[in-house]
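Final report, Chapter 2: Outcomes

The project's central promise was a pipeline that accepts a single protein chain and returns its three-dimensional structure in a standardized token representation, suitable for archiving and comparison. That pipeline is now operational. To close this chapter, we reproduce one record exactly as it appears in the project archive, with the input sequence first and the structure output second.
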Amino acid sequence: MRNIYTLLAALLCAGEIMAQTEKSDTIMGRELQDVVIEAPRVIHKADMDVYHPSHSAVEASKNGMQLLDNLMIPSLSVNDVLGTISAAGESVQVRINGRESSIDQVRALLPETVKRVEWMDNPGLRYGGANYVLNFVVANPTLGGSFQGQARPALNEAWGFYMADAKFNSGRSQWEIYASCKLTENVKIFRDYAETFTYPDGTSLTRTETPRGGSLDNSLPYYLASYNYVKPDTTVFMVSLTNQQHLGNRTEYNGLLSLSDGSDDILLTERSGDKGNYPSLSVYLQQNFAHRQMLVVDFNASMYIGRSWSDYLEQLPGASDFLTDIHTNIKDRNQAYGIEADYIKNWKKSRLTAGVSYNANRNRSQYENLGNEIFHQRQDKVYFFAEYFQRFGKWTATAGIGAQYTDFYFKESARGNHSWSARPQATVTYSLNQDHNFRLNFTSWQSAPSLAETNPVPQQLDGFQWRIGNQDLRTSSSYMLTFRYGFNLPRVNGSFGIRAFTSPNAITPLLHWEDERLVTTYENSMGLQNLSFFIYPQIEVVPEWLTLSGGVQYRMERMRGTGYDLRNSAWSGNVNLQVMHWGFTLSGQYVRAQRDLWGEKISWGEDVSIIDLAYNWKNWQFSAGMLMPFGEYDQGSRLLSKWNTNEQHMRLDMRMPYISVSYNVQWGRQKRGVQKLVNADAKTDASTAGGR
């Protein structure tokens, strides 16, 4: 991590020197010799940073993910190979013309139609508590259509990505058909795992797992069909049908358990997975009225039909009987519905947005391993908000307040709870000029308990551990205050700042002994607080040739709950390099994942490195690369409970060379783009089986 920080600091200093020594024949982006006006790479606005794709970035891209990667937004970690977008270790809400979308839908974008990309690290109340929002503003052709396809197989594993997309345009209408598949079959994995159980009487037992192999399956087909009608300045109508399939998301670990009490070694097999479908329907209507008024309505519905399962087996070598034999099978049939209506009124220097939304979840879980016992959960949420934006010269201010009502009911136990939560938000921005601005933002949001956290059906995890949900959980609230300075110098742009976060009643796991069982349940804890410092620069080392971007974040955090008070501090960051010339694009990336404290556990995601060389020829792109050319893949966690301390590392040989072929052809002229401004939430929940 020290190397990342040193490299970024050196690059930032070099960029500052280049900015100060810029040739005198360039004034405000105007080259006097050729009389060429260049737009800045990024425009810092009061509530977002706006990136306009350069000609070279569009030429080097064959889909929306590749274009986003080529934009090299400093605070973003974009991984086209793995299909992920994150920022500072957090998830990013992706939107297309204001409409919440998926990575697959971003991939289906034609780079030529992307007019700008809006990056919001302090999204407003209408974004439903998102940490970050990335919005692609796209113009659709009026005639003709387009087709694009991509195949990216690995050369040494049954792993890869495949997609095809077709769009057909006629006047104000567009039809789209899209299909993709993320392939992962029988990839070899293994796990390092060690744990110590401490009993209430003070005695302890340590179990150390020596890996004996394992495998991973995770193939995910995705399908989309959509229609949209756009009458500029009057009406926008969109409808889409999607389905995400889990063909067999399966993880298997095999190991040899050694016990500290001198008992014989034990053969361990642990399997878990899920299989099912996530169909969804989305309908959107936007109607403009006189005097710059607008009414937008969005409806979403989704289902989950599938099952989750886990097997946990312990056996002495050579024995025919099992010491521990646990099987959990849960069949879900869950539904979710959401509708939102917003009213927007614009004036010359101000804007008022007010809205209301309703979300409903209806969950039905059948435990086939418990005599087909059925568990029902009902969840309803109503949310009201109003937000006002005003510009005062170089100052802008946004203030809003939301109120959320949450209601839970559990049919079998006839128990439930409900609560009201306030959601205030405010942002103040001072723009010294187009190249320098300062922003202070306060935001808040609520998190409702999940199906797994409230499910009262006892689940046995291994010979010692059980999991039981808590039906008395309350909706938790989170608050975040961010100060950020954004700068846009010649050949250097980016931001740095500080962020404070607290969740005073966060929903977290809680471990306790009941007789001879170590039970994991959930509680509204005494809260999490953290403080983060960050810097994210982008540097044009050689304009249109060599660009570097990335950033580092240092986070200090404290977590308190029943019987514990824990602290953690860690670095995270990413470095991206891109060289473009003669139709070739050489890119490299290294990401160090954030180490997060939640409850009594520190977890970390994927530390990833990638190198890729692509060549563009007419409508084709050919590339070759390697996933994890250096470093070791490691994803895991460390539990710090006084009753159970453990550390696990999930490892696999991710050194995967791959090739990629992309094709992109389109025809038709462009028309004015439109934005979907709201998105009603209708995300289905799913049960979780097993998992120590």
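Archive annotation: The first strand starts at residue 26 and ends at 27.
This record, like all others produced under the grant, will remain available to the consortium after the project formally closes.
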